[in-house]
Write a structure and sequence with these properties.
The complex is a heterotrimer of chains A (196), B (47) and C (500). Chain A is built from five helices and eight strands; from the N terminus they run αβααβββαββββα. Chain A is an alpha+beta fold and 196 residues long. Chain A has two domains: 143 residues, Nucleic acid-binding proteins (OB fold (Dihydrolipoamide Acetyltransferase, E2P)), CATH 2.40.50.140; 47 residues. In chain A, the strands form two sheets. Chain A has a five-stranded mixed barrel. In chain A, strands 5-8 form a two-stranded antiparallel ribbon. Chain B contains one helix and no strands. Chain C folds into two domains: 191 residues, no CATH class; 278 residues, no CATH class. Classes of the chains: A alpha+beta (196), B mainly alpha (47), C mainly alpha (500). Chains in contact: A-C, B-C. The interface between A and C is large, with 58 and 68 residues.
């Protein structure tokens, strides 16, 4: 029964994948605008939870390119994150270079739609869960993110800095006085001394 | 082969430090060797 | 200190906690520099707020020290426990101001997880975190690993009374030198030497695997700090899987295993006593337990056909086991994959590995190889005593830097702490089960929390019940301080409320 379900899923994805791929390969380029044929996008979480079922199948994911594109010879790793998590995508270095922005603190990365073969534990990549991309499409370009200043925080920061400076100066003078007192007692041989 | 250490036993000499690090890395390397052997045995058993 | 604490006792403890807060305020400089370098101005303001809060509260508390104070062993112990709680509250400030956390409790969880070098995290959208805040996360695990207390001692208290007690309260059993300041400085020197080697190695490897030069430097620095402190935070949400690189993984293994070794061992080996590496009870115990536990895990993984070949078995099986046993917590698989793919046998092996932990006197957690080795030796000795005639005399010793007597008193102490660890693990497991998680999942997460490991099977998440978050915070705090300081604090509180 498990085998039948797997076959049905495989058939479904094959059909969808083929439909998407026709458009992708028509003009020989692998990076293009959004395909006209609607595709079933799978969330990362679904891939993770159903990894055995999806293993070796062609899937389509959509998410933000994050971090850094890591070129390894003619190929590259780009990690793609949707709302439920991130997965590594193995694509050509050329495809990776076509991604204009990768997500970080200062920007939202390009939103990519990727169709490729999912691996639960990729034999080529030391058991990594990954997708070997066959088609990479940029759905939406990334953009810089502005992090606004808060006046309230700046005021708080200024106030705390001054107060802290004052406190530390007070502490320093108190420590200095105590040290002077200790050395005075030590010299005269009197005093409470230190100990357990 | 012991280089100088001062009375308080402070790390002495770049050479001693490097040699010591090499020994530690060799010890860590032994874990890799054991790991590979164990994997090969288990994989062979279930092949 | 008399049975009922006096006002002076509270003041001494608070003033020591204050010194640690000042140290934490100074540590804020690291993320501030990164914020300036990267132009993260709003984050810079957040860290100025944090630093201000730390320095102000620290200064006020430090001034509490009475003029004729007589700090003692118990003050040091209780101050250690209290300092960690205060540091947790203060270090959570930048997290809270970042907007990446669901609640202040989540922020405190991450702060405590950082200081205790655990590595479990409740952060949201880690991939878009600022560079400065990521630096903070990693720096506090590095500082926590060296001991928040030792940090304070090195730079702030000039050999004043009570500082040895504070150090012992930290849970680092080994005295490298008679003077605590020398020990602290020696710890820092060993760490500095490895820091240079480690950051360079990871930076170069990062560039080789395709990271841009600047990113490779930041990742190298962050990963090194997390590795050496056996912390396990990583700058991206996929943890170590982000890098997709055997080279990066294996280089990090070298540094996190090194970080899990006893500082006294480092000092011995790095100053000429290289034979110590193979004679030391902890190195032997660690190696032996790893062989056994990895065999169990590998058997479970191959039986389940989880990984296709040797390379995958090493990069997933070996890496997770060594990450778990050294209590580092770097992961090259998703948390859910433990639950969905690994199978019960491999997970049981992982639980035991995480509980055994690394070496004493290091940044690692767990029961510690020293206690496990000593208890096994004790079992062997007792076995001999049964088999040999009553008049027979045999040596009861173990080698750790020098030959040490392993008598009943020592064995009792090791056994007691071991029992406390196991008891705490049971408590954390029960809490997980009570929260509705499956038993093995709860046990795995409990082992990770008890041993300050940081591997997760998926229980630790922002949606976790509040009471479980609090339980885990308390467990990771108690485990890191190896109970003594916690028991001292408990006793202090009891004596304070009694006879009122």
């Amino acid at each position: 029964m498990y085998g039948c379900r797997r076959c049905a899923l495989a058939a479904a994805f094959q059909i969808m994948g083929m439909a998407a791929s026709v458009g992708a390969w028509a003009d020989g380029a692998s990076v293009q605008t959004v395909p006209t044929v609607p595709v079933q996008v799978v969330q990362y979480e679904a891939l993770l939870e159903g990894a055995s079922a999806f293993d070796g199948l062609r899937v389509t994911i959509q998410g933000e390119a994050i971090g850094q594109a890591m070129e390894r010879g003619t190929m590259a790793w780009v990690n793609v994150a949707d709302k439920s998590g991130a997965i590594g995508v193995w694509m050509s270095a050329e495809e990776a270079r076509s991604i204009s922005m990768l997500g970080s603190y200062s920007c939202r990365g390009d939103e990519l739609r990727i169709t490729g073969t999912f691996h639960r534990a990729c034999a080529e990549h030391g058991g990594d869960m990954d997708i070997h991309a066959e088609a990479v499409a940029i759905v939406r370009a990334g953009e810089r993110v502005v992090h606004p200043f808060s006046v309230a925080r700046q005021v708080t920061a200024a106030f705390l800095s001054l107060a802290a400076a004052g406190g530390l100066l007070l502490l320093r003078s108190r420590d200095g006085k105590r040290r002077a007192l200790e050395s005075k007692y030590a010299k005269s041989g009197k005093g409470s001394g230190h100990g357990r | 082969m012991r280089l100088r250490t001062d009375r308080r036993g402070r790390l002495a000499g770049f050479g001693e430090l490097a040699l010591g690090m090499a020994v530690e890395i060799a010890y860590i390397g032994a874990f890799f060797v054991v790991g590979i052997v164990v994997c090969l045995v288990c994989l062979a058993f279930h092949a | 200190m008399r049975n009922h604490p006096r006002k002076e006792d509270y003041l001494i403890i608070l003033s020591y906690a204050g010194r640690v807060a000042i140290g934490l305020g100074i540590v804020c400089v690291a993320p501030m520099l990164v914020a300036i370098a990267e132009g993260e101005w709003s984050v810079l303001v957040d860290f100025i707020i944090c630093a201000g809060a730390c320095l102000l509260s620290g200064a006020l508390l430090s001034m509490c020290m009475p003029d004729d104070a007589h700090p003692g062993w118990l003050h040091g112990m209780v101050a250690t426990a209290v300092s960690w709680l205060l540091a947790m509250v203060l270090a959570a400030i930048p997290y809270a101001l970042s907007g990446h956390y669901g609640s202040y409790l989540d922020c405190m969880f991450d702060a405590m997880s950082g200081f205790t070098t655990t590595g479990l995290t409740l952060v949201l959208d880690l991939d878009h975190l600022s560079m400065a805040l990521n630096t903070w996360r990693h720096v506090i695990t590095f500082v926590g690993g060296q001991g928040v207390v030792v940090l304070a001692l090195s730079f702030l208290i000039d050999g004043s009374a009570g500082s040895y007690e504070l150090y012992v309260g930290e849970g680092k059993d080994e005295r490298l030198f008679p003077s605590v300041l020398h020990t602290a400085k020696a710890i820092w020197k060993i760490s500095a030497a490895y820091f240079v080697v480690g950051v360079v190695a990871l930076w170069v490897t990062g560039i080789a695997i395709g990271l841009p030069v600047k990113a490779a430097f930041y990742h190298g620095m962050w990963i090194y700090m997390a590795a050496w402190s056996t912390g396990g935070f990583a700058p991206m949400s996929q943890n170590f899987l982000y890098y997709h690189s055997a080279a990066y993984e294996m280089v990090s293994v070298v540094f996190f295993v090194a970080g899990s070794l006893n500082f006294a061992l480092h000092h011995a080996v790095l100053t000429g006593s290289r034979r110590e590496m193979i004679k030391n009870i902890e190195t032997i115990s660690f190696f032996a337990s790893f062989v056994i536990l990895f065999s169990i895990v590998a058997a479970g993984l191959t039986r389940g056909g989880v990984y296709p070949d040797l390379v995958a078995m090493m990069r997933k099986g070996f890496f997770q086991v060594i990450s778990g046993q050294t209590t580092t917590g770097f992961m090259t698989i998703s948390a859910r994959q433990f639950a969905l793919e690994w199978g019960d046998l491999a997970l049981c092996g992982m639980c035991v590995a995480m509980m055994i932990g690394g070496s004493a006197g290091s940044t690692a957690g767990g029961i510690k190889g020293l206690r496990v080795g000593a208890l096994l030796l004790a079992v062997r000795n007792d076995g001999r005593r049964l088999l040999l005639p009553p008049s027979a005399v045999f040596k009861k010793k173990m080698h750790m830097i020098e030959d040490r007597y392993l008598g009943d008193e020592q064995v009792r102490a090791y056994a007691l702490i071991t029992v406390l660890y196991v008891g705490m693990w049971v408590f954390a497991t029960l809490a997980g089960v009570a929260a509705g998680y499956p038993a093995l999942d709860a046990a795995f997460e409990a082992a990770s929390v008890t041993g300050n490991v940081g591997l997760s099977i998926g229980v630790t998440a922002p949606a976790m019940p509040i009471f479980l978050k609090i339980v885990y915070i308390l467990v990771i705090w108690a485990g890191r301080l190896e109970f003594m300081a916690i028991l001292a604090l408990g006793g202090f509180i009891v004596s304070a409320v009694r006879r009122r």
